[in-house]
Design a protein that fits this description.
Order of helices and strands: HEEHHHEHEEHEEHHEE
GO cellular component, one term: plasma membrane
Keywords: Kinase, Membrane, Phosphoprotein, Transferase, Transmembrane, Transmembrane helix, Two-component regulatory system
Subcellular location: Cell membrane
CATH architecture of the largest domain: 2-Layer Sandwich
Number of strands: 9
Radius of gyration: 41 Å
EC number: 2.7.13.3
Number of helices: 8
Shape: elongated
Number of domains: 3
CATH topology of the largest domain: Heat Shock Protein 90
Organism: Longimycelium tulufanense
CATH superfamily of the largest domain: Histidine kinase-like ATPase, C-terminal domain
Strand order of the largest sheet: 4-6-7-9-8
């Protein structure tokens, strides 16, 4: 039978007290046995024990009989000392066990609070916290760590709720379009009307396909990396920019590229998607006559900045949530499905990369600036070594 932690602590407290008490009484007994006969003999010869006991002088008692008296007196005193010490030790041992049980309960009370909170937790009450107050010690640190974990779980649960709701909304829209086109449009025998309906169905199908592709890519990046390999980030950025130049030109946007040779460690497909999403976002959410700039630095940092509508600093974090847009809009009327920047964040997290984002001043054209610092390939020769 395994004892509880409280019982083990109580046994430890009681055992330590009993052991130290026994050692103390043993030392006292040995010291008294050594010194008591001499003390009694001196006191008897001096007619009294100072301050406590007065005895008649025994000048005519022979030395041999006097020694017997001293021996008997000291033996009786030592026996009384041993008896009362043993009784006192037993009483104090019982008291120490009771006190140890109470102290252990007080010490373990925060753990019971943590356990009780953990048992009460469910999907609907992740907002509960322990909120332990007191001096900074191991238990308050444990409670604080548990509260921080609950905060992360609550944020993850809330994010999942929003994700499911928004994904359902995004999937419902193209399905509704397809259903309406099938029910209404295909009943018309007009060839031009049928062609229009066909295009509507194709557009809705493409939107569903983009959404599903984005969800699959988001799930893949959330799983983590199975392996890492050296990736020439500057070449990857150049390829992505080149593929988006025609789109940028059609929107009257200048797409710039500044690179330094650098190799990072990661998955080339995911990193290519990260750059593609950043560049596509910079081009799509821009203004006519504006610009988008991609910069790759030698320390593994890729920075994408663009002009565009004003971004509220308080909404920058929301832009990296699935299906979120500026001003709290869901979805996009520019061909996107609202997963671009959330995929960027997920891929950056998977690569242990530092991601920062900030709005650009309206006086400088507005828009957004996103910087991601990826881990370097330390085995590759640096630019200075070449």
């Amino acid at each position: 039978m395994r004892l509880t932690v409280r019982a083990r602590l109580t046994a430890l407290y009681g055992g330590l007290f009993l052991a130290f008490g026994a050692v103390l009484l043993t030392v006292v007994y040995l010291l008294m046995r050594q010194s008591l006969p001499h003390t009694i003999g001196v006191a008897i010869r001096a007619d009294e024990i100072p301050g406590q006991l007065t005895v008649p002088a025994l000048p005519t008692v022979p030395r041999s009989e006097l020694n017997d008296v001293v021996t008997l007196s000291s033996g009786a005193a030592l026996q009384q000392l041993l008896l009362w010490s043993a009784l006192s030790l037993v009483v104090l041992a019982i008291a120490s066990i009771a006190a140890g049980w109470w102290v252990a309960g007080r010490v373990l009370r925060p753990l019971r609070d943590i356990t009780g909170t953990a048992r009460r937790l469910s999907w609907d009450n992740l907002h509960e916290r322990i909120g332990m107050r007191g001096p900074r010690d191991e238990l308050t640190e444990l409670a604080g760590t548990f509260d921080d974990m609950l905060a992360r779980l609550e944020a993850a649960a809330e994010s999942q709720r929003r994700f499911v709701a928004n994904a359902s909304h995004e999937l419902r829209t193209p399905l509704a379009i397809q259903r309406t086109a099938i029910q209404v449009g295909l009943s018309d025998t007009d060839p031009e009307r049928i062609a229009t309906v066909r295009e509507q169905l194709l557009d809705a199908n493409r939107r569903s396909e983009r959404l599903l592709d984005g969800l699959l890519l988001l799930a893949r990046s959330d799983r983590g990396l199975e392996h890492k390999e050296p990736v020439p980030l500057h070449q990857l950025a150049a390829d992505v920019v080149e593929r988006n130049r025609a789109i940028a030109k059609s929107r009257d946007i200048t797409l710039e590229l500044r690179t330094e040779p650098v190799e990072v460690l990661g998955d080339p497909v995911l990193l290519g998607q990260l750059l593609t999403n950043l560049v596509t976002n910079a081009v799509r959410h821009n203004t006519a006559g504006g610009w988008a700039r991609v910069e790759v630095r030698g320390d593994g940092t890729v920075e994408v900045a663009n002009t565009g509508p004003r971004v509220d600093p308080g909404q920058v974090t929301e832009l990296f949530e699935p299906f979120r847009r500026g001003a709290g809009r869901v979805g996009s009327d520019t061909g996107g499905v609202g997963l671009g920047l959330s995929i960027v964040r997920s891929i950056a997290t998977t690569h242990d990369a530092a991601l920062t984002a900030r709005p650009r001043p309206v006086t400088d054209g507005g828009g957004l600036q996103v910087a991601i610092r990826l881990p370097l390939n330390r085995t590759a020769p640096t630019h200075a070594d070449k």
